[in-house]
């Protein structure tokens, strides 16, 4: 039987049936990185993939309608851009066994799990939040929430250690019972290279066999090289022993200019390059890059595209590019006038050059979004962005105008 996703309606999304993004630190789960977190409890945690919200969304999609928090994909498709939904529906090999047996089923066992153990992190990216970064959590505890408007806010996250321990214990119970059904396990953070539970995961994986499992680690690689080298050695061992199918390390970088150290606050660009060299010299591991393209980083995209070309001469790389989440829409590239965004995007396409390259297709998707949105600029959002950056300057003793001197002029020219 084919393990391709069969669309049963114009809105059906493979992720809703196969994927869960689980955060044991917050006790939440999402069916996509763009949807709102669903709060779990100790009583329903083990059935995190079939909670009431997920079931309701699956029913809505079977009717050909859009769930209420799938707005970004709905908007993209209305603009004739390629949406995340359409892209994920092309992924092969992750259809749950229950769907293969009955395409109308509503309850499934996930094949793709993204796990955030807790928010331990060494960085404060401008589009992140206290839920996903302990450094952000410390900052908001000291300085308070940042409330831009009713829709955009960075609020403090108060962790519950007792609940966290319960959720983690239940996660390991679920994992032991279901790991053989997994085809992809994506380990997130915080920063996974400095989270204790990730060490526990590697110990667990060293005791089982799932030759169909791909282990993915998404990391800022902003750690001492010895720490990364230790994990690389462990991954190579798991592959060599046949305990898992493959390993992917996806690095996070949004710009390769100096402004990256402001956007991804805490980043040391030289250390990133050293650790990237280590990965590029490890043929056993698949290397990825994940870039969040913001209104600030988009002008620097050509520089990153050039660096990507240099890296790919040494090692194949999967480069994924995404826009920001709903929480920080004042950072979306769509707030800028089209002629401020399009040249950088199109120049990046020329640099990548190969239409068959996944990165080219990702950049092309950004181009389609920018062209079809046909924005003359969103003055209110641009002013919100300036207010946000100014507040971050106050807290972090930085100066955004040094990195983005063009922003005020662009804002003034937008009616």
Please, could you describe this protein's structure?
- There is one protein chain.
- The chain has 415 residues and is α/β, with parallel strands linked by helices.
- It has 17 helices and 13 strands.
- Strands 3-2-1-4-8-9-10-12-13 form a 9-stranded mixed beta sheet. A two-stranded antiparallel ribbon has the order 5-11. Strands 6-7 form a two-stranded antiparallel ribbon.
- A hairpin with a 5-residue loop joins strand 6 and strand 7.
- It starts with 13 loop residues before the first helix and ends with a helix.
- The mean pLDDT is 93.
List keywords for this structure.
415 residues; 9-stranded mixed beta sheet; alpha/beta
Structure at a glance:
By secondary structure, this protein is α/β, with parallel strands linked by helices. Helix content is 42%, strand content 14%.
Our count of helices gives 17
Number of strands: 13
Mean pLDDT: 93
Shape by Cα distribution: globular
> Considering DSSP H and I runs of 4 or more, what fraction of the residues is helical?
40-55%
Strand content: 5-15%
Secondary-structure element pattern, one letter each: HEEEHHHHEEHEEHEHEHEHEHEHEHHHHH
**Radius of gyration, in angstroms, nearest whole number:** 21 Å
Unreliable stretches, pLDDT < 50, 5 or more residues?
none
Alpha-carbon distance between the two ends: 56 Å
* Derived structural class: alpha/beta
Compile the SSE list and pairings.
Layout: H1 14-18, E1 19-23, E2 28-30, E3 38-39, H2 52-62, H3 71-78, H4 84-88, H5 97-101, E4 112-116, E5 124-125, H6 134-143, E6 146-147, E7 153-154, H7 161-178, E8 184-187, H8 196-205, E9 210-219, H9 225-240, E10 244-252, H10 260-263, E11 264-265, H11 269-280, E12 286-292, H12 301-312, E13 317-322, H13 338-352, H14 358-373, H15 379-396, H16 400-403, H17 407-413
Parallel strand pairs: 1-4, 4-8, 8-9, 9-10, 10-12, 12-13
Antiparallel strand pairs: 1-2, 2-3, 5-11, 6-7
């Amino acid at each position: 039987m084919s393990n391709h996703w069969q669309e049963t309606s114009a809105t059906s999304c493979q992720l809703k049936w196969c994927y869960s993004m689980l955060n044991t630190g917050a006790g939440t789960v999402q069916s996509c990185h763009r949807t709102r977190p669903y709060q779990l409890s100790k009583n329903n945690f083990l059935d995190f993939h079939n909670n009431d919200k997920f079931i309701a969304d699956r029913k809505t999609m079977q009717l050909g309608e859009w769930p209420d928090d799938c707005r970004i994909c709905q908007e993209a498709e209305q603009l004739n851009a390629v949406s995340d939904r359409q892209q994920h529906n092309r992924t092969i090999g992750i259809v749950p066994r229950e769907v293969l047996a009955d395409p109308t089923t509503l309850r499934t066992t996930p094949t793709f799990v993204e796990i955030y153990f807790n928010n331990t992190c060494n960085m404060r990216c401008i589009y992140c939040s206290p839920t996903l970064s302990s450094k952000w959590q410390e900052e908001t505890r000291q300085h308070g929430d940042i409330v831009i408007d009713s829709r955009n806010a960075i609020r403090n996250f108060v962790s519950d250690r007792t609940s966290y321990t319960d959720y983690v214990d239940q996660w390991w119970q679920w994992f032991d019972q279901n790991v053989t059904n997994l085809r992809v396990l994506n380990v997130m953070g915080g920063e996974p290279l400095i989270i204790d539970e990730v060490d526990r995961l590697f110990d667990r994986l060293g005791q089982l066999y799932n030759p169909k499992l791909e282990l993915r680690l998404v990391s800022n690689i902003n750690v001492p090289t010895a720490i990364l080298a230790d994990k690389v050695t462990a991954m190579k061992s798991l592959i060599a022993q046949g305990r898992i199918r493959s390993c992917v390390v996806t690095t996070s970088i949004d710009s390769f200019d100096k402004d990256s150290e402001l956007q991804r606050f805490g980043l040391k660009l030289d250390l990133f390059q050293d650790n990237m060299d280590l990965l590029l010299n490890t043929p056993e591991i698949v290397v990825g890059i994940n870039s969040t393209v913001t209104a600030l980083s988009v002008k620097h995209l050509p520089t990153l595209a050039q660096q990507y070309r240099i890296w790919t001469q040494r090692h194949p790389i999967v480069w994924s590019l995404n826009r920001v989440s709903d929480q920080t829409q004042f950072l979306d590239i769509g707030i800028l006038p089209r002629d401020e965004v399009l040249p950088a995007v199109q120049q990046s396409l020329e640099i990548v050059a190969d239409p068959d390259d996944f990165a080219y297709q990702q950049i092309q998707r950004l181009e389609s979004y920018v062209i079809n949105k046909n924005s003359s600029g969103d003055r209110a959002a641009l002013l919100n962005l300036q207010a946000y950056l100014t507040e971050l300057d106050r807290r972090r003793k930085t100066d955004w105008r040094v990195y983005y001197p063009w922003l005020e002029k662009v804002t003034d020219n937008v009616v």
